[in-house]
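2024-03-11 09:14:02 DEBUG pipeline.ingest accepted 1 chain
2024-03-11 09:14:02 DEBUG pipeline.ingest length=166
2024-03-11 09:14:03 DEBUG pipeline.predict start
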Amino acid sequence: MKKALSMLLVLVLVVSLLGCGRQTGESAETEAVEAAPQAQNTAEEETENVETELVFYSKKEYPMPAGCSVRGIARIGHRLMLSGYQDGVPKLALTDYEIPEGGVPQFGETELLALDIQLPYYESVYSVTAGGDGCFYVLAGEHAPIYMRGGEIYTNEDYQGRTAIL
């Protein structure tokens, strides 16, 4: 008798939980459908005051010297700092650019910068960023415990997480 009563109680609990879940799901869907037009109207009002011009640009430009890959980029005004690699060696570069009326960017002469820090801090350039103070910052350091170069996977068994900010 106790076993049958327990099973009946569990069955009632399961049925009531299933019924609650359906009501919550339906009411959530109804609220989402009602809120969608309001959100769309708000977005349209915000974008009505913004002047934009649609520009398609598909020509590829490589401001780094031949043989260099570009991995990171930061901008301050019309000046770019680029990071990349050439034959597995990290490279930094600075260049100026402008985008005239035609919409095609034009780059100035690229100046390669030396990473004037000691091993292992110049093995990898992790990122470049533009600071709010008008300076570029570079996070460099040793190779990760497992890294890829030239399509091959390498391991750095001496990895200690050493980094430097330039």
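2024-03-11 09:14:41 DEBUG pipeline.report The chain has one helix and ten strands.
2024-03-11 09:14:41 DEBUG pipeline.predict end
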